[in-house]
Amino acid sequence: MTSSRNVVARRRTQVLGSLGVVAAAAAVAGLGTFGTFTDSTTPISTNLSTGTVSIDVSQRGATVPATTANFVPGDSMTRAVDLVNDGTSPLGRVSLASRATTANVLTSDAVDGLQLSVRDCSVPWTQGGTAAAPTYSCSGSVTTLYSGRAVMDAPLAGVASLQPDGVDHLVFSLSLPNSAGNGFQDKSATLGLTFTGVQADGTAR
User: Fold this and answer.
1) In contact, 203 and 101? CB cutoff 8 Å
2) Is the peptide bond before 65 cis (omega within 30 degrees of 0)?
């Protein structure tokens, strides 16, 4: 039979063993605590501001938008506008789109339907004729930017408005070819001309 003295001794041993495990765990936890020296640089100030992409059309002389009636084959209508880059950023592309609100033979026939031409003068156009039927002459150099069917969407190559403060002195002419036959009688069309500027590609700064 085990004596009571031996039982008490074993119990003391177990208690001491448990305390030893706790003490060891505390020692391991203490290994993760240590001092660290750090340093940081002074902030480097970097400032930037974004540019603006903006083009606008200003009227020159005869009224724009323009309306005419009783158009017949061989007739034309011409008006002048200035296209201005009034933003702060260069453009990679300037395009012109002409769209018809209603479709009929005037705008769907690419050959005998309405034709559009857009010309650029290096200086402002000089207006002549009358307010109802103006004419335009250029004392500088003339560049044809587009010539073809009236419903279109095309880039305008080499225009001055690609650069900030650049101005293009434009005249656009709508005409009905002499080849338009009787099927073009009693028709009407409304065209909306829209210039669009797209920013130039970004670069490393």
Assistant:
1) no
2) yes
